[in-house]
Specification:
CATH superfamily of the largest domain in chain B: Thiamin diphosphate (ThDP)-binding fold, Pyr/PP domains
Radius of gyration of chain B: 21 Å
Strand order of the largest sheet of chain B: 3-2-4-5-7-6-12
Strand content of chain A: 15-25%
Distance between the termini of chain A: 29 Å
Number of helices of chain A: 6
Shape of chain A: globular
Number of domains of chain B: 2
Strand order of the largest sheet of chain A: 2-3-1-4-5-6
CATH architecture of the largest domain in chain B: 3-Layer(aba) Sandwich
CATH class of the largest domain in chain B: Alpha Beta
Largest interface: A-B, 20 and 22 residues
Oligomer: heterodimer
Structural class of chain A: alpha/beta
């Protein structure tokens, strides 16, 4: 049995965290696993902090609300401060270091600092920092096959915006290749 | 098998209703159910259906009443404060023996309350959705696939028994996405409605749909007949799901979103050697009294867990009828209980058994 993924993505509304969560959820669905995706909703979607819980498991998912993530992706400082202590020991934390300069002082989690927003600006991929961070998540955890992840991108991008598929692929690769 | 797709609860409910032959939706926007109405607004005009954003909730439910009186499948959706406004119309529908689907994606109350998930409309749904002597069918899905399946059941049973049906969920289930398999379109058989007030070209007497009975004797007789139907429904339509209850000393009773949280707690309790199980009511009215009474013979105690100050727990107590202790744990105001909180409750109760 493969390990469960309890992922929390958090940042500002508009950074694409819900979309990023959907890509991860689809990558689990494509491999036939149980999945759930739960957004925070309400006023925080309009500029405040937004977050999204994604569970992938081989067992039916009980609570879809991730309170103790084993993977945390954060894109703003308030979210890092709010959620860093909830990550289970042994978990991973992926930080957009363009947005957050603070360092994590926990030794029981693996922390990756990825300047995702800067990488996107340098590569003409503005607004895809979320996907860069998903690329890093995939590189660190290999929670699914590369093929499933690619299919997940195709599934998640709306049919009317097909030209975004290749941009998402490039962003994903930036995250996978970042050392 | 058809391909699994990811769908939000609210959108899945809308698509399922369309698959179940509903072509008439009347609503008024409110968080956290708005995606349902938005989906209908997008799709209904393309398939020859009606999407109408009414001037108020009261107008919307009365449009459902009118459409249903004409014999078509009609529905509305709202969240807690909006359902309160619709309660008058729901009572009129019940008094007119009209089916119709009402979806309540609950949020915290009372009053305007908040917009986060809640289960505090249990009493309203099961005891008093409006004034007068009546019941409506109430279904409580806990997964998005089950929401889809229960939309069909709610329409079918509503038509069969000529009464309104409600699907009661909460903001968490409405907003979350899970993989679902959508039903095949065009495979429904609709109940004949010879009572409908529709056009017939003067081939029969006019049908009259009405809830006004000024003669007390006639109104009493009508109510008694309606309650005979309710008694038959209580006999045959109770639904629930049990998990790990066969040897359970402690039976948790929870529906909808809180049942999912409790399931995690049960798994954790079992891992610690505590014999706990869960009974999840699928129908809240009729309440699965028979299954609870059955478990009261083997279980040592019950624990009702709700996202409210404790409403369903009263029905659990009525079902257990004093045979075993019934405890309660709940969070309210939009707070979702955590599995570890429920586990603590289970441990405490198990320690005292």
């Amino acid at each position: 049995m493969r390990p469960d993924l309890n992922l929390l993505l958090a940042g500002f509304g508009g950074q694409g965290l819900l979309f990023g969560g959907k890509v991860v959820a689809y990558s689990g669905l494509i491999e036939g696993r149980e999945i759930s995706w739960l957004p925070s909703y309400g006023p925080e979607m309009r500029g405040g902090t937004a977050n999204c819980s994604v569970c992938i498991s081989d067992e039916p998912i009980g609570s879809p609300l991730v309170l103790t993530p084993n993977a945390l992706i954060v894109m703003n400082l308030p979210s890092l401060d709010k959620f860093i202590d909830t990550v289970v020991p042994g978990g991973i934390v992926i930080i957009d270091s363009t947005m957050i300069s603070k360092k994590v002082n926990r030794s029981d989690v693996s922390v990756f600092y990825v300047p995702a927003t800067k990488l996107c600006e340098d590569n003409d991929l503005k607004g895809l920092a979320n996907i860069v961070l998903i690329g890093k998540l995939f590189k660190s955890l290999a929670h699914c096959s590369e093929e499933a992840l690619d299919k997940a991108i195709i599934k998640s991008v709306p049919a009317s915006k097909k030209d975004l598929i290749d941009l998402n692929r490039r962003a994903l690769k930036l995250g996978i290749d970042f050392e | 098998m058809a391909e699994k797709v990811l769908m939000k609860g609210n959108e899945a409910l809308a698509e399922a209703a369309i698959c179940a032959g509903c072509r008439h939706f009347f609503g008024y926007p409110i968080t956290p159910q708005t995606e349902l109405a938005a989906y209908m607004a997008k799709v209904m005009p393309k398939i020859g259906g009606t999407y109408l954003q009414a001037e108020s909730e009261i107008a919307a439910i009365n449009m459902v009443l009118g459409a249903s009186a004409a014999g078509v499948r009609a529905m509305t959706s709202s969240s807690s404060p909006g359902i309160s406004l619709k309660s008058e119309g729901i009572s009129y529908m019940a008094g007119s023996d009209l089916p119709g689907l009402i979806i309540n994606v609950q949020r915290g109350g009372p009053g305007l309350g908040g917009i986060q998930p809640s289960q505090s409309d249990y009493w309203q749904a099961t005891k008093a959705t409006g004034h007068g002597d009546f019941q409506i069918l109430v279904f409580a899905p806990s997964t998005i696939q089950e929401m889809i399946d229960l939309v069909f059941t709610a329409f079918d049973l509503g038509d069969k028994y000529r009464m309104p049906a409600m699907i009661l969920l909460d903001g968490m289930l409405g907003q979350m996405m899970e993989p679902v398999v959508l039903p095949e379109k065009g495979k429904i058989s609709l109940t004949e409605k010879p009572w409908a007030a529709d056009g017939h070209g003067f081939k029969r007497q006019h049908n009259i749909i009405n809830s006004l009975y000024l003669d007390p004797a006639l109104l009493e007789r009508t109510n008694i007949q309606r309650f005979e139907r309710y008694a038959a429904i209580k006999e045959t339509e109770q639904r629930c799901e049990e998990y790990c209850t066969e040897d359970a000393d402690l039976v948790v009773v929870a529906f909808g979103a809180s049942s999912r949280i409790c399931r995690n707690a049960i798994v954790a309790a079992r891992a610690q050697g505590i014999k706990a199980g869960i009974l999840r009511p699928i129908t809240l009215w009729p309440f699965p009294t028979d299954a609870i009474l059955q478990l009261a013979q083997t279980a040592k105690a019950f624990l009702a867990v709700e996202m409210s100050m404790g409403q369903m727990v009263e029905d659990v107590k009525l079902a257990v009828n004093g045979a075993k202790p019934v405890r309660f744990y709940g969070r309210t105001g939009g707070i979702i209980p955590s599995p570890s909180e429920v586990l603590e409750q289970i441990k405490t109760i198990a320690g005292g058994m």
